[in-house]
Amino acid sequence: MRNFLTAMTALSVGAMASTQAFAQEVRNPAAEWEELWNTVIIDITIIGVIMAIAAVWMLIKYRATSPDQVGTAKRLTTVQAISFALIPAAIFMADDFYLAAKGWTVWNAYRRVPENAIEIKVTAYQWYFEFEYPDGTETEELKMPIGEPVVLRMTSEDVLHNFGVPEYRVKEDVMPGRITYIWINPVEAKETIVQCAEFCGQNHSEMTTKVSAVPREEYDAWLAKIAAED
Amino acid sequence: MSTPTTTTGHAAVPAWKEWILTTDHKRIGILYLVGAMAAFGIAGLMALIIRLEQMELGMQFVESGTQYNGILYFHGAVMILAFLIPGLTGFAANYFLPLMIGARDVAFPRINAFSVWLFYFAIVLALLSFVVPDGPDIMWTGYPPYSVTTSANTSMYVFTVHLLGFSSILGAVNFLVTVIYLRAPGMGWNQLNMFVWTTIAAFVLQLIFIPVLASAVTLLLFDKYLGTHFFDPTEGGDVLLYQNLFWFYSHPAVYVIFLPAVGILFDIIATMSKNRIFNYKAAVYVGIWGTVGISGIVWVHHLYVSGMPDWIRLGHMVTTLLISVPVGILTLSMWGTLYKGAITYNTAMMYAASCLYLILLGGLTGIPLALPSMTLHLSETSYVHAHFHFIMALFAAFALFGGIYYWFPKMTGRYADGPIATVSFWLNFVGVNVTFWPLFIIGKEGMPRRYWDYEMFKDVQIMGFYFEDFHKVATIGAFTIALGMLLPTINFIYAAFKGKPAPDNPWNSKSLEWTHTASPPGPGNFGDTDVVLDENWSPYEYQK
Fold first, then answer.
1. Model's pTM, two decimal places?
2. CB within 8 A of A227, min separation 6: which ones?
3. In angstroms, how far is the first alpha carbon of chain B from the final one?
4. What is the span of the domain harbouring residue B57?
5. Are strands B461-462 and A208-214 parallel, antiparallel or unpaired?
6. Do residues A39 and A90 share a domain?
7. What is the C-alpha to C-alpha distance for residues B185 and A72, in angstroms, rounded to an integer?
8. Do B433 and B514 meet the contact criterion of CB atoms below 8 Å apart?
9. What value of ipTM does the predicted structure carry?
10. Domain limits for position A199
């Protein structure tokens, strides 16, 4: 019994240690998204192609040759009937759990914010976004220093909005009364856009602004310049 | 000159009055069909305006974002609530379910008539949104706080939902009682047509879930006009409450559309391939009822980016993926019904065969959307838009059109098949692919739904093409579909009066609506003798 407890303790300590090691490594959700996309597309293409070939083959092969002809499929026995339900169900479930496990791993990349992430507050209005940096500077576009994870804490002052950055493969709703978050890992220099992706009224299609990842010096200089202007 | 009288001595009523005041389930079915097709036509025109507006960057066709949003609202709400649901559970169920179970009418014919009246009132109310100064612009989902703070008329949306909800609940009770008590003597549960099973499953869903939607939109009404704060966080309310209530109904509503479409498809395929349903019991008890069972615990996949807690998003990832089990079993049964069949091709079977493609494409493209991590990017893009059009809108509409061609000889005594029907089928089939494939591609790169402009993407290229190029292709596809839908409408009207006469059972089906009734069936459906069946009878038994 004591041996067993010791073994379990060792196991759990080991597990915790590896989780910590895991957490320290800064992941790249956008890249993992792309990998998962490829996996899922291959998965559904295989199923789709098999089923499509089977359908086309049967639609051609089993054409009636005379109007009186009837189908000749045999009635299933009880064992066959149950097998034709259980075996496919098992195959579908196996694929479901495989995809769920993959999806869960990437989900953790998206939702576990690295500890030292720069925190920027986002407030959405009809129809623009406002950003507040750690030093209190407020802007209407988002700049991030390359290689430093950024976490956005978001809320809305009026209706539902959504903060979506297609290039970084991420979006999350922004709403009054709650604070939601996303985090971005800007691994390289990039200039892209954020769009509102939750219907918010007349100018929903125009609710957008610039998002860019720039070197640290440029980022500091930019913030200092805006602070000086205020 | 004497007043014309009927055989029983009452004064004859004019034809229009006879139609409006009818309690005959077949006429009520036709009334649903006419209303649903009218709604489909108008909402289809809205789709063309949407496609024209998106064809080029900037604003060309509409005058303001609000007008565009009003058109989007109308297209979505009317297609789902006034075309697909009434077309399948109104028209098809009313006309054919009693015939299939050997009943002379539904259990409560007058309540049935009231249902169709409510449906027409709802269509009128929806159409009024074009006439009133501030028509609804809140999308078919009506999310607060926007639907509460907008100057537009949210109450028209709420009352349209109420009317259609009452109509569906009355229909649900009516049809469930009909199937339970009015089946022909000798007809056991395992001898029902697949369409009967899928329809009662759809009505069970309506009965359970509509009250939840009704409560959600009613609270919206209170918030906007009576000053309550159910969805207002500044006064202690919560915006997420509405989204949960709304999708708790509206995801099962997808199956209210999907299941009867599957039922029509099974009946067409079995009849045209003269084959029994492959693994009938698995299809019914695992496929149909498994879908019903799971439908109430997957709604959060509509809220994957709504700021719900992480654990519930992951929980619903698993339940959502598990939908593939019952739907997969249904799909296998469809495929299996073709196996060793004797397939005859006609317009109905061509629509059915194309539905096999649509269910594969639409179903499988839903698998990435079942994963919250994928949806963190794909949500609210035109990828989602293309996915649900394939699986819900196009699959169900193609099944319904197939059903109309299949049952047309029964309803009118004439065929609707012919060169126009074939040409329009191919226009539709090519059209839907040309319209929605480009939307998958640009959706994956971020093209948002519900936008009239996409200026921010003007420099983004995919395989050397801009978003604008993809939108242009999609717009060409939309007009192809428009032509493919206009032609059969004219064809249906022409064929109903002048088409080639058809015998009572032109497809040599074994199902009751073909074997035991005239085309079209007279009052009381089955003439003077009641239908009585033995335990070996089955609507799908061709090998004798």
1. 0.93
2. A135, A136, A137
3. 57
4. 22-507
5. unpaired
6. yes
7. 29
8. no
9. 0.91
10. 118-229
Cα-to-chain-centroid distance, residue B394 = 9
Amino acid, single-letter form, for residue B316:
H
| A187 within a domain of the structure (yes/no) | yes
Q: List all residues of chain A from 121 to 150 with a beta carbon under 8 Å from chain B.
A: none
Q: Give the residue from B175, B246, B241, B242 showing the smallest Cα distance to B207.
A: B175
**Cα distance between residue B45 and residue B451, in whole Å:** 18
CA A148 from chain centre, in angstroms, equals: 20
For chain B of 544 residues, list the mean pLDDT of each consecutive stretch of 10.
48 83 95 95 96 93 92 94 95 96 96 96 90 90 93 92 96 97 95 97 96 96 95 94 96 96 97 95 97 96 95 95 96 96 96 97 96 96 96 96 97 95 96 97 95 92 94 97 94 94 95 94 90 93 86
- Is residue B190 within 8 angstroms of chain A, CB to CB? no
Using an 8 Å CB-CB cutoff, list chain A residues near B455: 206, 208
- How many helices, marked H, and strands, marked E, lie in chain A? 4, 10
Please report how the helices B419-444 and B395-412 are oriented relative to each other, as an axis angle in degrees rounded to 10. 170
Residue A195 C-alpha, separation from nearest chain B C-alpha, in angstroms: 8
How many structural domains does chain B have?
1
What is the 8-class DSSP label of residue B451?
-
CATH value at residue B68: 1.20.210.10
Dihedral sign for Cα atoms in the order A36, A38, A41, A45: negative
Q: Does A88 lie in the same domain as A140? A: no
Buried b (16+ CB within 10 A) or exposed e, B246-282: bbbbbbbbbbbbbbbbbbbbbbbbbbbbbbbbbbbbb
- Name the token pair of B474: 């999609």
Q: Look up tokens 């003077």; give the residue.
A: B528
Q: For residues A165 and A136, state if they share a domain.
A: yes
Residue B524 lies in a domain: no
Distance of CA A140 to the CA centre of its chain: 25
Give me the residue from B137, B356, B376 closest to A55, CB to CB. B356
B505-530 b/e (C-beta count within 10 Å ≥ 16 → b):
bbbbbbbbbbebbebebeeebbeeee
Q: Looking at the structure, do residues A154 and A198 belong to the same domain, yes or no?
A: yes
Same domain, A132 and A199: yes
Contact B318 A111 (CB under 8 A): no
Single out the residue of B380, B378, B305 nearest to residue A207, CA to CA: B380
Measured CA to CA, the distance from residue B197 to residue B97 in angstroms comes to 10
The Cα B360–Cα B513 span in angstroms is 30
State the Cα–Cα distance between residues A227 and A229, nearest whole angstrom: 5
In-domain check, residue A68:
no
Q: Which residues 60-99 of A are in CB contact (within 8 Å) with B?
A: 62-65, 67, 69-73, 75-76, 81-82, 84-85, 88-89, 92-93, 95-97, 99
Angle at B377 between CA B374 and CA B378, to 5 degrees: 75
